[in-house]
Amino acid sequence: MRRKTTLPPDGLTGRARRARVEPMAVRPLRDGRYVVETDGGTYVVDVEARTCTCPDNAIRHARCKHLRRVAIEITTGLVPPPGRRRATCAVCGDETFVPMDASGPQLCHEHEHHAGDLVHDRETGSLLVATRALHTRADETQTEVGRLVSEFESNTEYGDHEPVFEAVYLDSLPADAGLSKLGSLHTYRFPASRLQRVERGFVGTRSLSEYLAHA
Question: Which residues form the SWIM-type domain (predicted)?
Fold first, then answer.
């Protein structure tokens, strides 16, 4: 349970000020709503529907201090937005927010890869393009030769608990490669932190020939 906290007033007045300076504890619910505990009572806020069970909103239809406080805490990252939950990044250990139904090891924005991202292999220096996330751990994911990703000597410096990504070597991509073609190419599997992002959305924003022309 979170304890009640206050926020700096920031020179505001009225409800906007009360939303910050009055002690409140905001707790997300699994259905996307939030419980707000105050010294005067406990209320349920639905930020998407813009409703709160307090009299100020329920009777006067005002954007009450509880709605404002929840919006502030979502914006500043103190609580997850609707439909997301807290998780720990498998690479750096920082807190991140992931979809409510996400399973397996999770990653923060800094260490996540998406299909089409240009990545650098920390071990070999090669450039690859990520094709998909498997959402399984390196110590439970087999490669095409029947060995676990974590068992390869080149992966011993990376966490066995990290999620695995498939990627294709850049020099094997056709010049007109697009996202739809990535799934048909021969891929290799890597622990997440072995791949360092170079450019987000590389495939789909420009062609390989354009990249090579400016490399």
Answer: 43-75
